[in-house]
Amino acid sequence: MSIMIQEEYLKHGGCRCPVCGSDNINGFAVDIFSGAAEQECVCVNCGADWTDHYTLSAYSLGSYDPDQVTTS
């Protein structure tokens, strides 16, 4: 058994265990920080655990009322 390299793990979108390659994984609550987030994950198949790291890449503006916007 060989552990996935980072590039291979990212290619699978984080949907495979980096140890055994199983897609039977669980992700727990996402902790959000300024411009980043982390999620603890565990493989149901082999029991490996790891942390996924996310970075802010963009935002999508929803609706807003321009009359309610105040500038500071």
Describe the structure.
- It is built from one helix and three strands.
- The chain is 8% helix and 33% strand.
- The model has no long low-confidence stretch (mean pLDDT 93).
- It has one domain.
- It has a three-stranded antiparallel sheet, with no helix packed on it.
- It is mostly beta strands.
Residues in β-strands, percent: 25-35%
How far apart the termini lie comes to: 57 Å
Low-confidence stretches: none
Overall, the morphology is: elongated
- Helical proportion, percent range: under 10%
Number of domains: 1
Structural class, from helix and strand content? mainly beta
**Backbone CA Rg:** 18 Å
Q: What is the tally of helical segments?
A: 1
Query: What series of H and E elements makes up the topology?
Result: HEEE
Biggest pleated sheet? 3 strands, antiparallel
Which strand order do you get reading across the main beta sheet? 1-2-3
Number of extended strands: 3
Overall mean pLDDT stands at 93
Question: What's the quick description here?
Answer:
With 72 residues, the chain is mainly beta. The protein is built from one helix and three strands, in the order αβββ.
Topology:
Elements: H1 6-11, E1 25-33, E2 36-43, E3 49-55
Keywords:
single chain; 72 residues; mainly beta; 3 strands; 8% helix
